Amino acid sequence: MKIAICGCGIGGLAAAIFARQAGFDVTLFDQFLSPEPVGSGLVIQPVGLRVLEQLGAADGALAKGAKGFYMIGREAKSQRTVLDVSYGPKGGANFGLGIHRASLFGALMDVAKADGIAVTGQHRVISTHTNDQGRFLSFDNGASAGPFDLVIDTMGTGSPLSSLIAKPLPYGAIWGTVDWPDTCALQYDCLQQRYRRASHMIGILPIGTLPNATKRKAAMFWSLPRGQIETWRNRPIDQWRAQAIDLWPALAPFADQITHHDQMTSAVYTHGSLQKPYGDRIVHIGDAAHRASPQLGQGANMALLDAAALLKCLAILPLDQALPKYAKSRRLHTNTYQTMSWAFTPMYQSNSRILPILRDYVLGPLSKVPPVPAILTSLVKGTMINPMRGLPPR
Question: What local confidence, expressed as pLDDT, does residue 296 receive?
Answer without folding.
Answer: 81
